[in-house]
Amino acid sequence: MSSKWCSFPFKGVLTENDGTFNTCCHGKTAIDYDTGIPMTRETHSIKEVFDSEYFEKIRQNLLNGIEDSNCDYCWELERQGVESFRQTTNSLLQHEERGDTEPKIEILDLSLGNQCNLKCRTCVPEDSSLWVNEYHDTDYTGELTLKDYQKKIIFLETEESKFVKDIKHSLNDVRLIKFFGGEPFMMKRTWDIIREAVSIGRDKYIELYFNTNGTFWEENRIALFENFEKVNIALSIDGVGDRFEYMRHPAKWN
Fold first, then answer.
1. Per-residue model confidence as pLDDT tens digits over 122-175
2. What are 211-223's pLDDT values in tens digits?
3. Do residues 114 and 155 make contact, with C-beta atoms less than 8 angstroms apart?
4. Where are the alpha helices (DSSP H) in the chain?
């Protein structure tokens, strides 16, 4: 096994709110080599991205011990003697120990929209719908009207979305689903996907991960978690007390 091995290009696909795809949160936007433009949810299925020449080139480079430029973030950390995202993930998922180099979609890293109930000072319109109007009024320098800008920058997958259907069709081998936002607990599509995993009997094999602001929860959702292998809930809070309320407007620390 090459010392450059990384689980993500072999086992996962990440999608951003703007509809583009990456190997992971530190990877670069995946390009369709035939057109030279990014692959998106509108133009490519998850499997088409995963099987693409872009992903395959990364996989072959890593197997051959070549530091692919897609992974520059991790290579730089490792040169500094810092444990990288690649190393942490390899240890967590233990693919390297299993000698498992077969490309198979086992990780889905999903941003299903920017719907959010907070307007955090560290955030941007692409990740929080509450920032869209103010950003347009103060910082936006384009020619779109507010209404047209909202149509462009407010991302929310619908029930009829072919991408949501694509996710549901991609669950057969999945072991880990990561939900980001916006606020993932607010989004109906989050729960559609979880219910689909339950309905096809995949829940007992799947680990769920949520990155949430900790302010939105509906108690009746807890039953859906019952049979999943593991459920991790990570709270983005940035501080406590007054500092939290300053950073995470308009949330209240209590």
1. 999 999 999 999 999 998 999 899 999 998 898 888 877 889 999 999 999 999
2. 999 999 999 999 9
3. yes
4. 7-11, 46-50, 53-63, 72-79, 85-93, 95-98, 132-138, 146-153, 162-169, 188-199, 241-247
Instruction: Say if residues 10 and 103 touch (Cβ distance below 8 Å).
Output: yes
Per DSSP, the residues of 188-216 read: HHHHHHHHHHHHTT-GGG-EEEEEE-SS-
Quote the distance between the C-alpha of residue 104 and its chain's center: 17
Whole-angstrom distance, CA of residue 168 vs CA of residue 187:
16
SS3 61: helix
The gap from C-alpha 200 to its chain's centroid, in whole angstroms, comes to 22
- Report yes or no: 116 and 106 within 8 Å, Cβ to Cβ: no
pLDDT band at 82 (very low <50, low <70, confident <90, very high): very high
